[in-house]
Design brief:
The chain is mainly alpha-helical and about 110 residues long. The protein has one domain (about 1-110). About 85% of the residues lie in helices and about 0% in strands. The chain has helices at about 1-25, 30-50, 60-65, 70-90, 90-110.
Length: about 110
């Protein structure tokens, strides 16, 4: 549970860091691209350090439903929206809208 809480704290800072990089680089997408490049390198490092370095077999990529690939698109949308919205509406409104959107969607799915 503590790791999940720490992850939430890091996420709160991540938006500001991506936004700052985007501002310095001159375009919002630079922050998003940096986020995914560094995120990929960090995930690969965790994978290697934790001893799970065995590559998945080919069936893993073809056996699941087509929509499982949309997770990456969702991640890109999440990061890019944060980069563009955070400087315009501020952290409190951004996080509030994010949580409300997640709760609303969860409640809608649970009611069906």
């Amino acid at each position: 549970m503590l790791i999940v809480l720490a992850s939430g704290m890091i996420t709160a800072f991540q938006h500001g860091m991506n936004s700052r990089f985007s501002k310095l680089a001159g375009h919002g997408f630079h922050g998003g691209m940096l986020n995914f490049v560094v995120g990929f390198l960090a995930a690969a490092t965790f994978w290697l350090v934790l001893g799970k370095a065995q590559a998945p077999n080919r069936e893993v990529f073809t056996s699941g439903p087509w929509w499982m690939w949309l997770g990456g698109v969702g991640g890109a949308i999440y990061v890019c929206v944060a980069i563009f919205a955070l400087p315009r509406i501020g952290g409190a409104y951004y996080i509030s809208a994010l949580v409300i959107g997640q709760l609303e969607h969860f409640l809608r799915l649970r009611s069906e």
